[in-house]
Inverse folding.
């Protein structure tokens, strides 16, 4: 019961901290503010401001891309489920040694078997390419959006407020 309360409290604090920073879609997808930056200095200023201003939206975007990457890589999901399920099953049922014929199967041998089967499964599921695709796709989308969207009028007041 205590863990349920902790999980509920964690979800509530996440919702208050991150999801409260979400900007409305009409502001995030405002096509009238899209323009090419004049130079690198202006692009850097836009990226700096927009990554802070739209941080909740960018976090949600990374989350959506991560879910998409897992949906399209079923082999990775199955390999991770196999390893996590194997750990849970060994911890729950394999605590005591089991006698099978003349052989004694210990918890250590069960973990060894799990790793011998699970690590190649995980390797063939290509988790590194999925991770680097997620990093690359997120970087291109976030930096592209942050660079192309002009900051609103409130960005000028934010610079004045920071200096006070």
């Amino acid at each position: 019961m205590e863990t349920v309360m902790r999980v509920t409290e964690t979800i509530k604090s996440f919702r208050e901290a991150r999801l409260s920073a979400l900007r409305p879609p009409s502001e995030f997808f405002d096509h009238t503010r899209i323009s090419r930056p004049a130079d690198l200095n202006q692009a850097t200023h836009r990226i700096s401001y927009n990554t802070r201003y739209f941080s909740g939206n960018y976090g949600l975007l990374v989350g959506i891309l991560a879910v998409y990457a897992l949906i399209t890589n079923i082999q990775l999901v199955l390999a991770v489920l196999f390893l996590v399920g194997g750990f849970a099953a060994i911890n729950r049922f394999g605590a005591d040694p089991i006698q099978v014929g003349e052989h004694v199967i210990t918890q250590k041998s069960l973990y060894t078997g799990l790793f011998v089967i699970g690590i190649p499964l995980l390797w063939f599921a290509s988790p590194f390419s999925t991770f680097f695709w997620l990093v690359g796709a997120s970087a291109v989308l976030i930096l592209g959006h942050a660079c192309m969207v002009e900051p609103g009028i409130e960005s000028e007041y934010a610079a004045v407020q920071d200096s006070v």
Observations:
- The mean pLDDT is 88.
- The radius of gyration is 24 Å.
